[in-house]
Specification:
Radius of gyration of chain A: 19 Å
Number of helices of chain A: 2
Number of strands of chain A: 0
Helix content of chain C: 25-40%
Structural class of chain A: mainly alpha
Shape of chain C: globular
CATH topology of chain C: Glutaredoxin
Order of helices and strands of chain C: HEEHEHEHEEH
Oligomer: heterotrimer
Shape of chain A: flat
Largest sheet of chain C: 6 strands, mixed
Strand order of the largest sheet of chain C: 1-4-3-2-5-6
Largest interface: A-B, 46 and 90 residues
Number of strands of chain C: 6
CATH class of chain C: Alpha Beta
Chains: A mainly alpha, B mainly beta, C alpha/beta
Structural class of chain C: alpha/beta
Number of helices of chain C: 5
CATH superfamily of chain C: Glutaredoxin
Distance between the termini of chain C: 46 Å
Strand content of chain A: under 5%
Chain lengths: 72, 421, 164
């Protein structure tokens, strides 16, 4: 059991190291800009997606989330 | 011989509704402390007198407390125009002069596989309206956002109910998000021109992961799985099949050798997507690249590439331009027409299941007024236009069955307003 | 158990910068920032004998912005009793902050620190962050983020420090 925990721990540390960019909380000004968000207008993207769905056989894609200022 | 042409632009509407994405789902990301209202008018127009659609949509997001917000979306669509009902061998189609429908099929001729196909359109110009509504909430608890919503959509020949459940986890100093969503749709199909009452159920599963890469770039990965179970055919679409056994369970389509299409009653769909946004400092602009790979159990696979360039201009104006390329391969049972029966009894000549490509380009202009009035925090308007060309020749790799007979172009315009209080 | 603890400690050492953080009970470090309007260097030691509410903010941070009207009220109410609200702006582009301050004028002290000297010295962990510093220059409270609901507690803490 302990070894599983240790393995999990090592993996999570490796993940954290790999996924933690060296950015301080006060350095997120650019990430907070509207042009850095994945979806700027929910209605517009739903309309485009809907019309694409009705002409094409594919479904799926991105949901929302991600980026932003990371403010508290 | 009764003309098939009175039936349907419904061919379009049914297939459109059968797919998710009609309503913007309750967005966990739209965390607001003040009410937000959105309204949009969209217009879609195809070339060659094909269909036109007017779309009215709205969103109201209302925070109840610091952690709870409710959101409602609604949509009203009105369709008009003609859609293809059938593709068949040119040599046997008896065409009505001055109309796009057919008056009969010459069954004295034997058709060969390499014959030129012709597309038979509906001449219909009736209007049909769909009403859709979605009501949901999202609840924030520490680093988690939980969301749930229910939806209903109704039109004369189609009724759909559905729900979506989602959770988003923001972690690692907010450098990462992980999201999971599940939803179901229960649809009832009862076409107005046929005695038919069918049902289908959809299951959707979605997984998302986002990563802040640097001070100037973000990355997002998504995967989705959809399972459809039930009546998956388009009840208005027909196929031409030569020498089909007279004991067939396919419903006759009004002409000899013409039947209503029949698709498998199960479909598994998978997709994987990647999106990346990079900031361009000296322009204060950003560029986004998207790629999606899609595959389903009917042997359709597709690639989608999209690039979006966002350029803020002076005085809170912004210009967004985009370029999109889409290419799909055909379903394993798809043919323009069938010269003999298929062993699996599955047939469809719906151009959506054919191999083709689409190239689209669009621009959008937005303007935001901060503190526009005493009661509003900001008002934002947006005007956009996108032009697409859909063609068999645009498909990646070699052509299969599809000829260029169903090539067409379309334009999509939208104007929207967003008010934050 | 011991085996599990050692990688834990190791990772804490690796990934946490808390050992450099300014925590309650320590002296507020000196750092270089300049008055937003006249460029004069800010020297916190000039405020000995006063209670300081030191705020780190940026115009791209929504909760920072929404805290300003409340902070202004706090300033107006308690300034005469010896409370100094000092807000250090960390925008990379000063014009963004200027635009916001024009829309939301405030009477308390605004300082500008483009280089991020001060948030480094205070090891700011979130935006906004605020430090309540007593008359002797000792950090007594650290608040991460801004929540309207905590305002009453903050005010009470400041009043307690004033009476010390």
């Amino acid at each position: 059991m302990a070894s599983y925990f240790r393995l999990l721990f090592v993996i999570s540390c490796a993940f954290q190291a790999a996924c933690t960019p060296n950015i301080s909380p006060w350095e997120r000004g650019i990430l907070a800009k509207p042009q850095m968000s994945f979806q700027s207008n929910a209605l517009e993207s739903s309309l485009r997606k809907h019309m694409q769905h009705s002409k094409e056989a594919s479904t799926g894609g991105h949901s929302t989330g991600g980026g932003g200022c990371g403010c508290s | 011989m009764v003309a098939a042409k009175n039936s349907t632009l419904k061919a379009f509407t049914v297939a459109a509704l059968a797919l998710p994405g009609l309503l913007p789902t309750a967005k966990a990301a739209q965390k607001t402390t003040k009410p937000v209202i959105d309204f949009q008018y969209g217009h879609y127009q195809e070339s060659d007198d094909r269909i036109a659609v007017d779309i009215y949509q709205g969103i109201i997001a209302l925070p109840i407390s610091k952690s709870l917000a409710i959101q409602s979306n609604w949509v009203v669509d009105t369709f008009s125009g003609a859609t293809p009902v059938l593709t068949m061998p040119n040599s046997v189609a008896q065409v009505i002069s001055g109309a796009s429908g057919i008056s009969g099929v010459d069954d004295s001729k034997t058709v060969t596989a390499d014959e030129q196909a012709v597309e038979v359109m509906t001449g219909a110009s009736t209007r049909e309206t769909r009403y859709g509504i979605d009501l949901g909430f999202n609840y924030t608890l520490n680093d988690f956002v939980f969301s749930a919503s229910g939806s209903r959509s109704e039109e004369p020949d189609y009724l759909s109910h559905g729900y979506n459940l989602g959770v988003e986890w923001i972690f690692n100093q907010k450098f990462n998000t992980l999201s999971l969503g599940f939803g179901q749709n229960f649809d009832q199909i009862s076409p107005t021109t046929r005695i038919l009452d069918e049902e289908k159920t959809d299951y959707h599963l979605q997984l998302g992961f986002s990563q802040v890469v640097s001070k100037e770039s973000v990355l997002k990965l998504s995967a989705s799985y959809t399972y459809n179970d039930g009546y998956l055919s388009n009840p208005y679409k027909k196929v031409f099949i030569q020498d089909l056994d007279t004991n067939t369970n396919l419903k006759t389509g009004g002409f000899s050798n013409v039947y209503y299409e029949n698709r498998p009653d199960k479909r598994h769909q998978w997709s994987a997507s990647l999106a990346y946004i990079q900031y361009i400092s000296f322009l204060k602009a950003s560029v986004q690249f998207d790629y999606r790979y899609f595959k389903d159990s009917w042997d359709i696979s597709s690639h989608t590439f999209e690039a979006i360039y966002r350029q803020p201009l002076s005085k809170s104006w912004e210009l967004v331009s985009r370029l999109r390329y889409y290419s799909q391969s055909e379903a394993k049972f798809y043919k323009n027409f069938y010269i003999q029966a298929n062993a699996n009894n599955h047939y469809s000549s719906d151009y959506r299941l054919a191999g083709f490509g689409t190239l689209a380009g669009g621009i959008k202009l937005t303007k935001e007024w901060g503190l526009a009035s005493k009661f509003t925090k900001s008002i934002k308007i947006e005007l956009g236009v996108e032009y697409s060309t859909h063609a068999a020749d645009l498909k990646l790799g070699e052509q299969t069955t599809a000829s260029n007979l169903s090539d067409f172009n379309y334009i999509l315009c939208n104007s929207s307003i967003n008010i934050k209080f | 158990m011991n085996k599990k603890i050692s990688p834990l400690l190791f990772s804490l050492f690796l990934f946490s910068e808390s050992i450099f953080a300014v925590s309650t009970g320590e002296a507020a470090p000196a750092c270089l920032s300049n008055n937003f309007y006249n460029d004069q260097a800010l020297d916190l030691s000039n405020y000995k004998g006063k209670v300081i509410y030191l705020d780190f903010w940026a115009s791209w941070c929504p909760p920072c912005k929404s805290s300003f009207p409340s902070l202004n009220k706090l300033h107006q109410e308690l300034h005469s009793q010896g409370v100094e609200v000092i807000a250090i702006n960390l925008d990379e582009e000063k014009t963004d902050a200027e635009y916001f301050l024009k829309q939301t004028p405030v009477n308390f002290y605004i300082s500008y620190d483009k280089e991020g000297n001060c948030p480094k010295a205070y090891d700011v962990m979130a935006m906004p962050s605020s430090y309540i510093i007593d008359k002797k220059g000792i950090v007594r409270e650290v608040h991460l983020g801004f929540d309207e609901d905590n305002l009453k507690d903050i005010r009470n803490s400041i009043l307690t420090l004033l009476s010390e």
